[in-house]
Amino acid sequence: MIDLTIQNAHDQIELIAFKIGEQEFCVDIMSVREIRGWAPATPLPQTPAYMRGVINLRGAVLPIMDLAVRLGLPVTEPSARSVIIVVKTAERMVGLLVDGVSDILTVTRDSIRATPDVACDRVRSFVRGILSIDGRMISEVSLDRVMPEMESMAA
Amino acid sequence: MDEMEAIKVTFFLECEELLADLENGLLTMRAGDADNETVNAVFRAVHSIKGGAGAFGFESLVRFAHVFETLMDKVRAGQIPEGAELAGALLRAADVLADLVSAARSGLAVDEERSSAIAAELEAITQGGGADAPKQDAVKDETSLFEVNVLPETASDLDDPDFSFTPMAISLDEPSPPPPAWRIEFSPLKTLYASANEPAILLRELERLGEATISLDSSRLPDLAQLDPDNAYLNWTIILKGDVDEQAIRDVFDFVDGDCLLKVEPFDASPSSSIDIAALIHSAQADESAQAPDAIESPTQPPQADIPAVAAVPIAPRPAPAPAPVPDAQAFAPQATIRVDPERIDKLIDLVGELVINQAMLAQRVAESGLAGSSSLAMGLDDLEQLTREIQESVMAIRAQPVKSVFQRMPRLVRETAAMTGKQVRLITDGESTEVDKTVIERIADPITHMIRNAIDHGLESPEDRIAAGKSPEGLVRLAALHRGGRIVIEVSDDGRGINRKRVQAIAIEKELISPDATMSDEEIDNLIFLPGFSTAAIVSDVSGRGVGMDVVRRSIQALGGRITIASRPGQGSTFTLSLPLTLAVLDGMVVDVEGQTFIVPLNHIVESLRPKAEEIHALGPVGKVLAVRGDQVPLVDIGQILGFRSHAPSPVDRVVLLIENEDGGRAALVADAIQGQRQVVIKSLEANYRQVDGIAAATILGDGRVALILDVDALVAMRRREPPVRPSFDPQQIAAE
Question: Is B709 in the A-facing interface, judged by CB distances under 8 Å?
Answer without folding.
Answer: yes
